[in-house]
Amino acid sequence: MLVDGMQMRAHPNGGGLVAETAYVAVTAYIAKGAMVMGEAQVLGYARILGTAKIFSRATVKDRAWVCGNAHVYGSAIVCDKAKVMDNANVSRDCIISGMAWVGGAASIGGKAQVEEFAKVFENSRIFGNALICDKALVYGTAIVLDDAEVSGNAQVFGESKIFDEARVTGGKIFNCLIGGSAVVKSNCSRESLLTKYKGFK
Question: pTM (2 decimals)?
């Protein structure tokens, strides 16, 4: 069948639509309403559910799930047992792996990585070469970019922005701007940050 100018076929495992240019393993599950387009690949036992869309040159593999109305595109990879859900967007060359999940209206792009047991959700954004790992949480409207890293049991939320080569390895970080080569290991708000790390605004 022709959908938006693309020749599509129903996948035998689930009935979702797959473009003739895409590849989906027979072991993968594509639900009715979900679509795999472009040169995307869905491999192994990956599951594409709801109205999720995988397109461009993205790859979803292993036992990863993409569900809800999530979009995975560019050259992004979702692998292992990771989940991308709700209205999340995963793009460019980023990698979502391990048991990590991305949900809400979060956006992951650039060469960012979300791995292990990390969670990124609500309206947060992760870009550049940023790394979110361990059991870290990033949510609210927080932004992590450049070569910044959020790890350990850290929680970054509110309107926080973590950038440059900053490292947040623990604590609850609320409405903070953290940059340069700063390392933050404990709770801080904007007020305490300005006291401890002069030069940030």
Answer: 0.93
